From TrEMBL, chains A, B:
Tagged with keyword Transcription: no
Pfam families (alphabetical): Dak1
GO molecular function terms noted in the UniProt entry: glycerone kinase activity; phosphoenolpyruvate-glycerone phosphotransferase activity
Keyword terms: Glycerol metabolism, Kinase, Transferase
Superkingdom per UniProt: Bacteria
GO terms under biological process: glycerol catabolic process
Full protein name: phosphoenolpyruvate--glycerone phosphotransferase
Enzyme class: transferase
Length: 333, 333
């Protein structure tokens, strides 16, 4: 295992210390129980947004804490759900009197622990709603998950719901926007290599030098099939078609096209994939009106990528365009 | 070789097509001779900024084209200097009547081809000045380079000189700011693994499973020494101390601390490195007043990172903070 770390046990704690030192005006980091909150939290009169999950997917979620997006992120150990304790602490820290929305990727541990935390917060008088993100079309049930997994579409939900909260929508409205985005977003991924979890010390799965895993999850969970390495255009087609057929997306739709790197894939390769995806959408009469390309939901150093397509309307577009100021997404402010 | 590409010969051309499709309002991509320019180029009455070099270091330079930073970027083949032709084309495309500054990383091929291009542009009546970036303290002369190499400090020069041009400074003043930043910025890097150039098909160098290369260049050129894998804190110390001793940086200085990923290193690891670097600077009485953490000057999928320290004053700080709108850096607008 070749990593830029000290003790594998301290990876998350030391990284969080780095986040605190790197972004002092933007976020406050609480070491125990570990959570990251907006430096100006709680924002009075605004719905609070909390997300979280296992670490190793950075910048998700800590990199999306700030104006116009999340109020707090709760990082668990690498690839492991956070316990209810830090989720409760984060929920209390961001409660500005208008309630808190939990944005939860659909993994069994995450869902259970966020539910428990919501009950505990409610017992302290904080109204909590949750949206469970399940945008991955690759498999129905999988390792760690009943139903579809939550993957890169989470970023789009955090941004758009965050903008709704920032403009002053109430808890019901913010939750409804988040559910609407989840209903209109679809993703699927591919792995070329496996990630290595620091405390495990070995790659999460084995994969041949000439093999790729189609429909991979962000923790290296198995996907739909393993095939031989192919040209990028064919790989894109293999994951884009199931995405488009699932909603389904149709001619005349306006969409946000998001090509997400899983960590170890160079940006030139992501743009090659974006190019093919944009061509396929154009051929089908689907208009790409917003775009995102880069490493936003990663799986440590795994080489691979995912494609996410979100059907837009005027409201979602306006919320996507709204100002945001976080470590990993920043514009308009 | 496991890459998300089609034909290795088409990597740069197809990636550029992806950039054009992903950022249509921001940049215009010319396929032949290949260059990326601001969508609103030329900006009349503003000094134009052009940078470039081999591809494979993305987002450098194309990701930094836009308001407040570069007017154009000229991507060569992977790890290979662009020829004079596209540099001339980019220079002409961004000439708004106030002259053009070339920002050139110190590699022999880059320097020669930018010089030739400057002569050709001058023959067409465009005034051109150049700043040669040589921030890498690792080695004096190296493969491809006489003198020190230009590495991650280039991003800071492009941002700060770009802000000076955007506020209306004339060519002499913009060049002077760029030279000033180059005089006050120092960098050094480390590799854990080697990158593979697509058309080569093999790793650029061989390195043992328990070895790291201290002082690596961004094309995998040899550095100062090869040592066994160590804890992150010790690795940071190995490259930070030569940086601090070189300028030298001293107690009371205010600095921008930039921890740059080389492509394949997870963000958690970059924050662990940032944490150690910030601690060392604090112990020496050096104030970290601005920060940057992420993959900005990469070497394809190489695992590794570099540290860059820039001594700030009020003017440089104000220019760093100035609004910027590019694919890879965006704030204040």
């Amino acid at each position: 295992m070749k990593k830029l770390i000290n003790d594998p046990k301290n990876v998350v704690a030391e990284a969080l210390e780095g986040v605190a030192l790197a972004h002092p005006g933007l976020v406050t980091v609480v070491a125990d129980p570990a959570h990251i909150v907006r430096a100006d939290a709680p924002v009075q009169g605004k719905v609070g947004l909390v997300s979280g999950g296992g670490s190793g997917h950075e910048p998700l979620h800590g990199g999306f804490v700030g104006y116009g997006m999340l109020d707090a992120a709760v990082p668990g150990p690498v690839f492991t759900s956070p316990t209810p304790d830090p989720i409760v602490a984060a929920t209390k820290a961001v409660d500005g009197g208008k309630g808190v929305l939990h944005i939860v990727k659909n993994y069994t541990g995450d869902v259970l622990n966020f539910e428990t935390a919501a009950d505990l917060a409610l017992a302290e008088g904080i109204e909590v709603r949750a949206v469970v993100v399940d945008d991955d079309v690759a498999v129905k049930d999988s390792l760690y998950t009943a139903g579809r997994r939550g993957v890169a579409g989470t970023v789009l939900i955090e941004k758009i719901a965050g903008a709704a909260a920032q403009r002053g929508d109430d808890l019901d409205a913010v939750a409804a926007i988040a559910e609407k985005v989840n209903g209109q977003v679809r993703s699927m991924g591919v792995a070329l290599t496996a990630p290595t979890v620091p405390h495990a010390g070995e790659p999460s799965f084995s994969i041949g030098d000439d093999e790729i895993e189609i429909g991979i999850g962000i923790h290296g969970e198995p996907g739909r099939e393993r095939v031989g390495l192919e040209p990028a255009d064919q790989i894109v087609d293999r994951i884009l078609h199931p995405i488009l057929e699932d909603l389904p997306f149709a001619s005349g739709d306006k969409v946000l096209l998001f090509v997400n790197g899983m960590g170890g894939t160079p940006l030139v390769e992501l743009y090659i994939a974006f190019r093919r995806a944009a061509h396929v959408l154009a051929e089908q009469g689907i208009e790409v009106s917003r775009t995102l390309v880069g490493n936003y939901v990663t799986s440590l150093e795994m080489q691979g990528f995912s494609i996410t397509v979100l059907k837009l309307d005027d409201e979602l577009t306006e919320l996507w365009d709204g100002p945001v100021q976080t470590a990993a997404l920043r514009w308009g402010r």
